[in-house]
Design goal:
Elements (H helix, E strand, L loop, with lengths): L4 H22 L3 H17 L1 H8 L5 H12 L5 H12 L6 H16 L1 E8 L5 H15 L2 E8 L7 E5 L2 E4 L2 H30 L1
Parallel strand pairs: 1-2
Antiparallel strand pairs: 1-3, 3-4
Helix pairs in contact: 1-2, 1-6, 2-3, 2-6, 4-5
Length: 201
């Protein structure tokens, strides 16, 4: 089975992230590296032109290395600095955002953290949100960090997104399921009546 382009890119992000975190764990600097990569991700989100500059093939490797020096040397630890320079030499700075995301996911796994998006009509009170997080933690077997997202289209209840999985517990979803059951039951009754008429005939 062949991998598509997205799978290959994600695998590359994962490889870089695992290599960086492996070195960080050996140095006892996982928290520091995780925080610095998060800050770099936030910086690139706020200033996308910066990433375009660092990835520009119009600049030589040496010029990009000099830019990294000016921007980050002394502001991040040695591991993250060296990682970015290696990515630069391999012309892989365009994958920085993907590596930032992969690092965050791997750190969560190591810490036993599961991040869940909760879509609600109205934000839950802190006590209720904590209770939902604890219950979810018992189900998924980890410490759940709950992020609430208001969605006025929901009638009630909530939808949960855990990674790529969406669990719909909203009232609207329940109504749709009830409607489907009624339709199926109605078809079943009609079929039974038809069968009885045929047998009577």
């Amino acid at each position: 089975m062949t991998q598509n382009g997205d799978d290959i890119v994600q695998s590359l992000d994962q490889i870089y992230a695992e290599a960086l975190l492996g070195a960080a764990e050996e140095a006892g600097a996982m928290d520091e590296v995780a925080d610095e990569m998060q800050q770099i991700g936030e910086l690139l989100t706020k200033q996308p032109q910066l990433l375009r500059l660092l990835c520009s093939r119009m600049l030589s490797v040496e010029q990009r290395a000099h830019s990294i020096d000016n921007l980050l040397k002394g502001r991040v630890g040695d591991l993250v600095y060296r990682f970015l320079q290696v990515a630069n030499r391999k012309n892989r700075l365009d994958r920085t955002r993907g590596v930032v995301k992969a690092v965050a996911q791997l750190v969560d796994e190591r810490r036993g953290i599961v991040r869940v998006d909760a879509f609600v009509v109205k934000r839950m009170a802190p006590e209720e949100a904590d209770r939902v997080a604890r219950r979810l933690g018992e189900v998924v077997g980890g410490r759940v960090v709950l992020r609430q997202c208001e969605d006025p289209k929901l009638i009630g209840g909530l939808k949960l997104r855990v990674g790529d999985r969406l669990v719909d517990g909203s009232v609207a979803a329940q109504l749709r399921m009830m409607q489907q059951r009624i339709v199926v039951t109605g078809r079943g009754d009609a079929r039974q009546k038809l069968e009885s008429l045929v047998s009577d005939g």
